[in-house]
Design goal:
Blueprint lengths: L9 E4 L6 E6 L11 E2 L2 E2 H15 L5 E5 L8 H11 L5 E5 L6 H8 L4 E2 L2 E4 L2 E5 L13 H17 L3 E6 L9 H4 L6 H9 L4 E6 L6 E5 L2 E5 L6 E2 L8 E2 L4 E7 L5 E7 L16
Parallel strand pairs: 1-8, 2-5, 5-6, 6-7, 9-10, 10-11, 11-13
Antiparallel strand pairs: 2-16, 3-4, 8-9, 12-13, 14-15, 16-17
Helix pairs in contact: 2-3, 4-6
The chain binds adenosine-3',5'-cyclic-monophosphate (CMP).
EC number: 3.1.4.53
Keywords: Hydrolase, Iron, Metal-binding
GO molecular function: 3',5'-cyclic-AMP phosphodiesterase activity; metal ion binding
């Protein structure tokens, strides 16, 4: 773990080689107590099994991206346990909030051991961690101040010849499930106008939808990822949990601006999940 302040807006990581190797852990939903559950799934256990799998599969990890809903209800103890679990990696972690998170508690738990909503420089890349949380609401929006930060970070990256990976919690495009598409980024139109003005943006990565999405918008890679706990069934009109196991995404940000990426799920363990549930708060 590094030692930079959580309030430092600009972080730097030194990749081990020419590419930047990242791991995304998202929607961990850790509860107040170890062993707490979401739809019957023990979210500490599932995260720990995902981390074990990452350590088995990924030889090089330059940074870990934690893209929101890290605690189920914004508990300080949940974030403190996350910090503890992330110590398994010899890499710094970069967090942003989701709708279930409490930013103040995140910052309190981080205490210099991770970075919240930072702008990360790594080789010829910038990784931008945006805040799409509207406190007290499920849906997301960047809002005027975050849209402004987005614009100026992309401007700075352009001036310095950096490629950019943009990360946020809420989906900036519909994903094809009516119930969750009501929660998509409300100011997505402005988000895409900003992206379109900056050709250095090579990828947009989010959480929230608890499922894999790999598609394109022009030459920008659009990526959503499995939760480290409960999955949502793709293409559902109404809330529906999915039997797919928990997982993570790996990313390789290449020196030529390309992005290699994939997901991996924990196939060698069984998980409880209430597939009949109509949802959760
Ligand atoms: N049946 C439902 N209909 C609409 N939204 C739901 C339903 N169940 C849960 N949600 C919300 O939708 C969110 C999607 O992912 P989250 O983990 O943020 O948490 C979920 C809940 O806040």
């Amino acid at each position: 773990m590094g030692n930079l302040s959580s309030s430092a807006p600009l972080c730097r990581i030194q990749p081990a080689g020419d590419s930047v190797h990242l791991v995304q852990l998202t929607d961990t939903h850790l509860c107040a107590q170890r062993g707490g559950t979401l739809l019957d799934m023990d979210t500490d256990r599932s995260l720990q099994l995902v981390i074990r799998q990452v350590l088995r599969e990924r030889e090089v990890i330059d940074g870990v991206l934690c893209t929101g809903d890290l605690s189920d209800r914004g508990y300080l103890q949940a974030y403190q346990r996350l910090i503890e679990y992330l110590q398994a990696f010899d890499a710094e972690s970069f967090w942003l909030p989701g709708n279930h998170d409490d930013r103040e508690q995140m910052a309190a738990a981080i205490a210099g051991q991770a970075h919240l909503c930072g702008e990360v420089r790594a080789a010829n890349w910038q990784i931008l961690m945006l805040n799409s949380q509207i406190p007290g609401e499920v849906g997301g929006e960047l809002g005027a101040a975050e849209q402004e930060r987005f614009e100026s970070a992309l401007q700075a990256a352009q001036e310095q010849g950096l490629y950019t990976l943009v990360c946020l919690h809420h989906q900036p495009v519909p994903v094809g499930s009516a119930w969750i598409d009501q929660q998509q980024l409300a100011d997505a139109e402005q988000f895409w106008q900003t992206v379109d003005r900056h050709p250095g943006v090579r990828g947009v990565l989010w959480g929230h939808v608890h499922q894999q999405i790999d598609t394109w918008r022009g030459d920008v890679a659009l990526m959503a990822s499995p939760s480290t706990c409960v999955q949502f069934a793709p293409g559902s009109e109404q809330f529906k949990a999915d039997a797919q196991p928990p997982g993570y995404r790996w990313l390789e940000l290449k020196a030529d601006g390309g992005i290699g990426t994939g997901i991996s799920r924990v196939m060698d363990a069984s998980f409880n999940v209430d597939l009949e549930s109509g949802g959760y708060l």
